Amino acid sequence: MKNRIKSEYISWILLLGIIVLFLEFSFFNRGLIFSLLVDVGMIYFGRKWKDRSLGKILFWLGIILLIISIFSMITIKFFLLAILIHFFIQFIQAKKKTEHIKPVIKEPSIKLEKETVIKKKPLFSNHLFGQQKTPDHVYEWNDVNIQTGIGDTIIDLSYTVLPKGETVIFIRNFIGNVQVLVPYDIEISVNHSVIAGSTEVFENQESKIINQAIQVQTPLYDQAEQRIKIFTSIFVGDLEVKRV
Fold it and tell me: Domain Cell wall-active antibiotics response LiaF-like C-terminal, which positions (predicted)?
């Protein structure tokens, strides 16, 4: 019951946040969308021209302006206020919480054994800044599921042995590029979502993509014994999948 009330409470907060966001874009701050697009464009072209001084200036200036634009939004202030009120209510309830007398229940004589699980070390971890790359030597494969802030991710599958069946790569990135190097005998499926960037899956290229979702796969994917499913979600950046 408590979990249901908490879920409904969160749903109402999200619904009100969406309404506030709509009102902000429609009436109170119509230039915000243009400002956000300009900031994202500066970051995108700054990464494209990162070898030049102008590109570095555009990139960091775009990040600073984007952060300022986001935190100046009425919607963000609404969510911060909602979080503050939530913690205040939790604090008051904790103070008023009374001691409950619980009945003592005798444990059954039959003890169930705990189920054993194996903890594995992931290839990558969630990073806010910096590049991540698979080793340049033979390594043991584990499925990838990470979230990153600003930086590139490079996965080279030529140095590992993939298991039979479906291998999963799941990457959510704010700003940065994702590159996946795939052996020639492996079939792939790509499910990619991006706000601003470009994609290159083998010989198929799409540049200057704005707010699109792309799904492609190789012809023999469904019948293959070994196959890779790639999920990527990038705010600003490029995706490259190529054979090695």
Answer: 129-241
**Residues 59-67: contacts with CB under 8 Å, at least 24 apart:** 63/150, 63/175, 65/35, 65/38, 65/39, 66/36, 66/39, 66/40
DSSP code for 162: P
The total number of residues written for the chain in this structure? 244
Asked whether the beta carbons of 74 and 28 are under 8 A apart, the reply is: yes
The C-alpha atoms of residue 186 and residue 147 are separated, in whole angstroms, by 25
Phi-psi region of 202 (alpha: psi -120 to 50; beta: other; left: phi over 0): left
Find out whether 63 and 43 touch, Cβ atoms under 8 Å. Answer: yes
Report the amino acid identity of residue 132: Q
What whole-number distance in Å separates Cα of residue 22 and Cα of residue 43?
25
Per-residue pLDDT of the chain (244 residues; tens, 9 = 90+): 545 555 565 666 666 767 766 666 666 666 667 777 787 888 888 887 877 777 888 888 888 888 887 777 776 777 777 777 777 777 776 666 555 556 666 656 566 677 788 888 888 888 888 889 999 899 988 899 999 888 899 999 999 988 888 999 999 998 889 999 999 889 999 999 998 889 999 888 888 888 899 999 999 999 998 899 999 999 888 999 999 8
Burial class (CB in 10 A: 0-12, 13-18, 19+), 161: exposed
C-alpha closest to that of 228 among 170, 179, 189, 184: 189
Q: Which residues of 61-70 are buried (b: 16+ CB within 10 A; e: fewer)?
A: ebbebbeebe
